[in-house]
Amino acid sequence: MRLCALGDLLLDVTVRLGGLLHSGADTTAETRLGAGGQAANVAAWAASLGADARFVGKRADDEAGRIAAAELAGHGVEVVGPVVEGRTGVVVALVGPDGDRTMASDRGVAPELRPEDLDPAWFADREHLHLSGYILLREPGTGAAAEGASAVRSAGGRVSVDLGSWAAIRDYGPERLLDVLRRLRPDVVFATERERAILGGDLPAEWVLKRGPAGFVISRDGDRTDWPAAPAAVVDATGAGDALAAGFLVGGPELAAQTAARCVAKLGAMP
Asked: pTM here?
């Protein structure tokens, strides 16, 4: 499969806490520094599953950007897109002893990707374009996503979107995002149940609703199929939804469940 993921390449700082945080005192932790970002994660997991994966996004010419790009390329992903002055985004993920995580996100220059930054050749040979929902929540990123989707569709390809974050959807405005999505006409939409509820409205697509340990639901035109999560010893849930999306796009629901289980069994969002 020839897949392109458009959106964010960030530097992830993952902190797995050994216990509860106590104000004014130390808490033991295990940490990991490395590449992250929703679109980059999907590209890395797709490459690990045998796809020909390309990442398209904007990053800064700083140490964080160099570290993230080098790691993503090391996963076998072709990394393209403008490198500019500024700040590459950083996400700090606090992971509790149960594997659940809370994230503090600084997206840096990633949402500033513009339609004129794109080379049509990046999309002409792709069968599928996966869009990070975060790129849709701010101009000019929305325009870049539309340009990429149009280019892939012109070549006979398909488009998927991951909604990204219920809090970001709430702050941006569900109706505004729904209007953007209706213009993009995605074939597949990935979302948590809370993200889907906040978005509301009708959007014709194949929906993959992520339910964490309860697995996921595939629905379209009133038909619904429940898929259980694959067994896993949960270490860190960061990136599990991105791994699931990559598995689904490359090989369908069974591979999606297996790939998500691989992700949660280790620290960090990438393979």
From this structure: 0.93
